[in-house]
Amino acid sequence: MMTMKDVAEKAGVSISTVSLVLNNHDAGRVKPQIAAKVRQMAEELGYKPNPMARSLRTSRTGILGFVSEQIQGIPYTSKALQGAQDATSRYGYIILLVDTDGSARQVEQTSTLQRYGVDGFLYSKPSSQVTEVPEELVHSPLVLISTNTVDNRFPIVEPNEFAIGYDATKRLIDSGAKKIAYIGNAKPTITQATRLEGYRRAFKEAGRTFDDRLVVNVGNNDPALEMVSRLFDEQHPDAFFCYDDSRTWYVYECAARRGLTIGKDLSVIGVGNLDFIVDTFTPKLTTIAIPEYEMGYWAACKLISLIEKRSLGPHPFPDELSNLPAIDAASPAKVHCRLIENESVISK
Amino acid sequence: MMTMKDVAEKAGVSISTVSLVLNNHDAGRVKPQIAAKVRQMAEELGYKPNPMARSLRTSRTGILGFVSEQIQGIPYTSKALQGAQDATSRYGYIILLVDTDGSARQVEQTSTLQRYGVDGFLYSKPSSQVTEVPEELVHSPLVLISTNTVDNRFPIVEPNEFAIGYDATKRLIDSGAKKIAYIGNAKPTITQATRLEGYRRAFKEAGRTFDDRLVVNVGNNDPALEMVSRLFDEQHPDAFFCYDDSRTWYVYECAARRGLTIGKDLSVIGVGNLDFIVDTFTPKLTTIAIPEYEMGYWAACKLISLIEKRSLGPHPFPDELSNLPAIDAASPAKVHCRLIENESVISK
DNA sequence: CTGAAAGCGCTAACAT
DNA sequence: ATGTTAGCGCTTTCAG
């Protein structure tokens, strides 16, 4: 590994000059020719700064801590992590990972991150429950991913559940469906309530009346399949909006048993990834995936803008994400996630 | 953050003494009482070493680089990452993440990791293809996860596909199934071949003759559902072993259309996570998940043992994993992954 | 047995 | 405009 010393010797200047130049602090301080030479030498030698040494002086590391609390075994956060990773590497940061089970070890692990001098935290918890932000995190810049918190102290990137419900329903309406059922979650989560709101709004805007016989909320221990079966037989819906992969599955199963073909006899839009997991789906099912990747990406951008105390500009996203809003704007409905700014109050 | 200086002052000794003691180099060098006092003070002050500063001297960081190449959007590695993370934090290491698309940026990102002074790499690529190990990685301790490589220079932790095929088939045989079909992959991957071997071996050991009419290999673009349908109607199998979630789905669909109930009329064991995704499965489906978590955990243990040049002992696993083999032993069939030692040849 | 001192690679205030 | 210098927190050799 080349050091500044090597560059300095090769360029025939002192280490401090090199430092000045390579950190772009040379404006009006170092003679342009010298600066150019230094830069060239650095390039030639393939010099890369040693982040450890740098952080020892500056206490800025270019490291972001990604803390995720996983529900046992469910790799919920993985796509958000990937998004965060992409954004992060784009801006020259890197991610230190802590995956915790929320136990006492979390504190320990988080403080480990702190010792490594992370510049800020991303905190992700796959829960629709309202939770508290771990105390250890609130002393650094922090952006939450998809976590409902009791206080509104930190920016949050979260799914736009209303938009999901609205969008799915509207698409079914636009496709010509007459009787659109909603297979929801019996547990009264915020997600459930908000999606249903979106569903109702789409109905309302289309001039249709809401019919609660078309809404079946099933739990995880209910005889769910039977409940959906009954809906089929009593209401004969021609379209379904499903809360998640499980619910989509029930509809699928019921349809198959009745010789009905999805995409022909029935339209189904489910939240989840079932069509992805079962990648050669015949017939066609439409799913709306929670935009985890985008949330991770966005959250990381927000965190970096917080750390560097500057706006990242209107287009911090790679091409595929270009339909995402600018980092500081409200999210349009067509993207199913949004940023809640919450002024970040860092208690030191 | 407390520093050694603080501890030294508080204990009334010099910094070097503190260093000696806290690194356990005090045997016969520091008076036991003094050592005790130092330790106590460190404890009281909550002193934690600064890894950055330490690595500046020792060039050991306690950081492991996790490099994963993702197929676009498939968060395949996430569980392996979680396993690695668990093992890693157990031994006081921490994971720096690089998630790459295999492009030119990979080199850049990997060298970023190198600058952060990672002690070693975990490399994971979700592919049954034979690939080369990225050149940038071979200069550090390296353990591969689930990656078939052209050369055998590095230790690999990989799924034991034979055991999966054998185990699934044997379980179906033991459950009393008469006609066990295999829905495989038309693409002739190593995975496919090895699983089929396991299937055949189980047949052989049970004294049954292999009947290739019961094997249907479907591709991703085939009229897969039709092919499985035909198998149903021509052979009337009473059990299925399925290559992955897609194939399991086909069986499920065909069964539903015929009014057959899995778990009653049919036994199905599929490789994958379908029963997990559709978490309230009715009726019961059995899946064998690729032990990604375990592979990650194991690989990290192996890597650490490589870095520290010591055996981690026979029980490096948490309780839930205690049925996994010792880090240096061959894997028994009951765990569906194995370690291939491959002497690690680090070219400096 | 303990402390002083050098130095890892880098930054930045201070001299020149 | 450039160089000198003093550390950041830690390890380790070498004197005492």
Automatic annotation (TrEMBL), chains A, B:
<dbReference type="GO" id="GO:0000976">
    <property type="term" value="F:transcription cis-regulatory region binding"/>
</dbReference>
<dbReference type="Pfam" id="PF00356">
    <property type="entry name" value="LacI"/>
</dbReference>
<dbReference type="InterPro" id="IPR028082">
    <property type="entry name" value="Peripla_BP_I"/>
</dbReference>
<dbReference type="Pfam" id="PF13377">
    <property type="entry name" value="Peripla_BP_3"/>
</dbReference>
<dbReference type="GO" id="GO:0003700">
    <property type="term" value="F:DNA-binding transcription factor activity"/>
</dbReference>
<dbReference type="InterPro" id="IPR046335">
    <property type="entry name" value="LacI/GalR-like_sensor"/>
</dbReference>
<dbReference type="InterPro" id="IPR000843">
    <property type="entry name" value="HTH_LacI"/>
</dbReference>
<keyword id="KW-0238">DNA-binding</keyword>
<keyword id="KW-0804">Transcription</keyword>
<feature type="domain" description="HTH lacI-type">
    <location>
        <begin position="2"/>
        <end position="58"/>
    </location>
</feature>
<keyword id="KW-0805">Transcription regulation</keyword>
<protein>
    <submittedName>
        <fullName>LacI-type transcriptional regulator</fullName>
    </submittedName>
</protein>
<dbReference type="InterPro" id="IPR010982">
    <property type="entry name" value="Lambda_DNA-bd_dom_sf"/>
</dbReference>
